Structure formats: structure tokens, C-alpha cells
TrEMBL record:
SUPFAM superfamilies assigned: S-adenosyl-L-methionine-dependent methyltransferases
Name of a matching Pfam family: Methyltransf_16
PANTHER family reported for this sequence: HEPATOCELLULAR CARCINOMA-ASSOCIATED ANTIGEN (PTHR14614), PROTEIN-LYSINE METHYLTRANSFERASE C42C1.13 (PTHR14614:SF132)
TM spans (from-to): none
Alphabetical list of InterPro entries matching this protein: Methyltransf_16, SAM-dependent_MTases_sf
UniProt protein name: Calmodulin-lysine N-methyltransferase
Length: 313
């Protein structure tokens, strides 16, 4: 918390302006981004933040009025750009970064400083459990993009890249920016695909290598997507639903290309279970540590390089 606990009697002495200042300070500090939902804040959330029993509705309205200040400060904080967060709880990466209208994703590949990607998001508190999870960037998305950057332009140049569950399109446009010849961003949600297309055009221009396609995992992916045309398959945070593993990895096997997936551990032993599942399915893989060094994106996310049989031949 950004303030020490105060006795209930102190609540009446806390003015709306002091509360607003405390929230803006918290938003700007990489060490104190612990509150989820301030962008759609309630009086209870503000009270938790500053350590009092309650605050007035007027104070909550004033903080909400500071949203134009809060959003760019939050977007540029390490909490959002490097997945530090800290987490809303011990295992989930729920955080205000998900609720920003746009995110900055710093790039590290290429000669000299690279301008960041500006990624539009459409998630909100009112829709977070109803809307597709692909409408915002989660920790695994940051890790996948940063690892792709670490592999460098020479690795991606001229390659044909397929992204499963593209969401905001971050992985796809990272591949295109790094020189991929053809990038197909797929998702089962048409609205998410429209968001990915907006982000591709906004960061790469109207004419770019990224195409989008509505696609449901499973079935004859080889026929629908082409089993021999893809050099690399990528995907971020696709393994959170254990029940979807069979169709996900059926698709990976069907396409047959080397596959780079980021996976987040949101439940105890989730990644160990994923390893056992891949072993049981006879899908060769190796695990790579996250390129980040602190916070959620470092401790809770791993990368899996999976090499189906065609990829080994």
C-alpha cells in the first residue's frame, strides 16, 4: 500500500484531493501497482489503496476524473511494459494494465533504439469475465513478444508465421516487424480479430504482412491452414484452460511446424502438468526461461519450444 493504515477516525480528515494525489502517486510507482480496478474504481478500492475504512463517493469521482493522467503514466510504468504488475493475487496476472485503452510494448531488436508498439485494448471491468480474454495483453503475451525480439531479425526474416489465439495481435505484428514474409493471425473471436487488424495497421501501416483468419482449434487444421507452408507457429497464454489442451496440441501436431508457446502458471503445478501432458502425447519440447528478470513475467511464465514430427524431419 502507498499509505500506512489509518484509524477510522482519520477518514473524515482525508480530503478528496489528497486521495486523488495518492492514487496518481501509486500509479506512477513501479513498486506499488497492486490495486486492480482503479480505472473503474469504487470507493472501496480507494479505501483499500490508502489504508482507511471508507472514502466518500466524491473522492472516487475525483480520482476517476484523473483518468487522462493515470492512463499514460500507468501504460509507461514497468508494471505494464515489463509485466512486473505485482499480481492482484498470488497466481493471476489481473491488474490495471488490462484495463488501459492502449499499452506500450518496448522493442529491443534492431540497430539503435526502437519505437514501442502501441497496442489497443478493449477490456473493461464490466466485461472482463464476459469478453474474450484476447482483448488485452496478459503476461504471457509480453514474454512471447520479448523472446521473439531476442531471437532477432535474422531468425524471423523471410519466415511464414502462424499465430494461434492472436488476441490483440502482438505476436503477429512482432513477427512482421522482425521481417517475417507472411503472418497469419488466427482466433476464434471475430471481434478480437478486428482488434488485431487495427493494431497491425496502426503499428505497421495499411500494407503489411499480417493477415487475419477466423479459426477454431481442432478439426483438419492441416487442410484449413496448410500443413507445409508454415515455418513457425507462435501463441501466448493458450494453455490456461486444461480442457482445451487436446484440441490445441492436435492443431500443433497437424500443422507440424516448430511451435513457440508462452505459458503462465496460474494454478499450482500447472506447468508441471503441461510438461507431463506433452510427454504423454509424445510431443518433443524444451522449456526456455522468460527473458524478463523481475515480477510476474519472470517468475510465472515459461516458453515451450515444441517440435512435432514434421518439424524434426
Amino acid at each position: 500500500m502507498c499509505a500506512q493504515d489509518r484509524p477510522p477516525s482519520a477518514t473524515s480528515a482525508v480530503t478528496a484531493s489528497l486521495i486523488a494525489s495518492a492514487v496518481v502517486y501509486c500509479a506512477s510507482s513501479a513498486l506499488s501497482n497492486q490495486v486492480f480496478g482503479i480505472l473503474d474504481n469504487t470507493a472501496d478500492e480507494l479505501a483499500d489503496l490508502i489504508g482507511v475504512d471508507e472514502v466518500s463517493p466524491a473522492a472516487a469521482r475525483l480520482v476517476l476524473a484523473l483518468r487522462p493522467v493515470y492512463e499514460p503514466v500507468k501504460a509507461a510504468s514497468l508494471s505494464c511494459t515489463d509485466g512486473v504488475f505485482p499480481e492482484f493475487n498470488e497466481v493471476n496476472d489481473l491488474n490495471d494494465c488490462l484495463l488501459l485503452p492502449s499499452r506500450l510494448v518496448w522493442r529491443g531488436s534492431g540497430p539503435g533504439p526502437q519505437p514501442p508498439f502501441v497496442i489497443r485494448q478493449t477490456m473493461s471491468m464490466s466485461t472482463i469475465w464476459k469478453q474474450s480474454t484476447g482483448s488485452a495483453i496478459w503476461g504471457g503475451g509480453l514474454v512471447l513478444s520479448r523472446q521473439m525480439e531476442a531471437l532477432g531479425h535474422d531468425f524471423w526474416a523471410g519466415k511464414r508465421v502462424l499465430e494461434l489465439g492472436t488476441g490483440t495481435g502482438l505476436g503477429a505484428l512482432t513477427a512482421a516487424k522482425l521481417g517475417a514474409l507472411d503472418v497469419l493471425a488466427t482466433d476464434r473471436d471475430q471481434q478480437v480479430l478486428q482488434l488485431a487488424d487495427v493494431n497491425a495497421r496502426g503499428n505497421l501501416g495499411e500494407r503489411n504482412a499480417v493477415r487475419t483468419k477466423l479459426f477454431e482449434w481442432g478439426g483438419d487444421a492441416a487442410q484449413e491452414l496448410g500443413s507445409s507452408r508454415w515455418d513457425v507457429v507462435i501463441g501466448a497464454d493458450l494453455t490456461y484452460n486444461r480442457d482445451a489442451w487436446p484440441v490445441l496440441f492436435e492443431t500443433v501436431r497437424s500443422v507440424g511446424a516448430p511451435t513457440l508457446l508462452s505459458a503462465s502458471e496460474r494454478r499450482p503445478n500447472e506447468l508441471a502438468e503441461l510438461r507431463r501432458y506433452l510427454d504423454d502425447q509424445a510431443l518433443p519440447y524444451r522449456v526456455v526461461d522468460s527473458p524478463f528478470t523481475t515480477g510476474y513475467a519472470s517468475s510465472n511464465v515459461k516458453l515451450f519450444w515444441i517440435t512435432p514430427r514434421r518439424a524434426q524431419s
